[in-house]
Amino acid sequence: AARLAGKTTLVTGSAQGIGQAIAAHFESEGAEVWRGDLQPMDGERALHLDVSNEESWAKAIAEIKAGSGKLDILVNNAGIEWEKPLQDIPLGDWRKVMSVNVDGIFLGCRTAKPLMERRVEGRASVINISSVAGIVGFPDQVAYNTSKGAVRHLTKSLAVEWAAHGTPIRCNSIHPGCINTPMLAAAGEKWVAAGLIEGDSLMEAMGAMCPLNEVGDPSDIAWGAVYLASDEAKFVTGLELVIDGGFIA
Ligand code: NAD
Prior knowledge:
Layout: E1 8-12, H1 17-28, E2 32-37, E3 46-48, H2 54-68, E4 73-76, H3 91-116, E5 124-129, H4 142-164, E6 169-176, H5 182-193, H6 202-207, H7 218-229, E7 240-243
Parallel strand pairs: 1-2, 1-4, 2-3, 4-5, 5-6, 6-7
Nicotinamide-adenine-dinucleotide is lined by residues 12-13, 15-19, 37-39, 49-52, 77-81, 100, 129, 131, 176, 178-179, 181-184.
């Protein structure tokens, strides 16, 4: 299928994990894909991007403008995981989580908007990757939970602000549950060390926490992103799309 034919897209945090899968699915649906990450990447349209940095965003969007002249879809996926109970969080670490997970999306939306809203037909699409942790609280991850809750509400705020101003950009969030990526593997090791989960296979033990009894694949999230990016979702804005195997059901 080529649901995204003719669409220019940017996916942040796309060197690995969920972002990499979203970029690959977009490409196979016919999109022109720019990828941005702190990590170096090979290939065409790969940008060095630190989402927490205002100048880095300005450079990335200028490069897309020069190369493609437009931007139809922005996926704000880059994020960092952080787990500590409240009393153990230095202010600097708290701010680091907020600067990547929240400032990163604020800056991305603000910098990309002028390029995204210049259209003759249809609506552009911003997709923000939050988490089930943005809807319910998980113990000992107050910074991460708070940042993802902010992503959820930033998304709703922009959805109604842009609609109210007639800005042709939709804005939705995706809330993944446990998805098999390097981030989840690292978190799982910490949970095992803390005695919160047990088992020989980490992913199996984490999957057992889900009603569907398995962790998800990055492609499970990527298919949701393809839908929200496509014109088939032209009437969808302000949605929180939960893809979690029933985790918070
Ligand atoms: P990951 O750690 O495997 O990949 C994240 C990518 O983001 C990496 O390539 C990293 O280099 C990049 N990145 C980090 N900081 C950056 C910055 N400042 N600027 C640009 N790029 C940066 O993580 P993942 O599991 O693929 O997670 C992707 C998103 O999904 C994150 O926002 C995460 O919070 C969210 N999420 C993941 C899960 C899960 O179970 N894996 C669950 C819920 C939400």
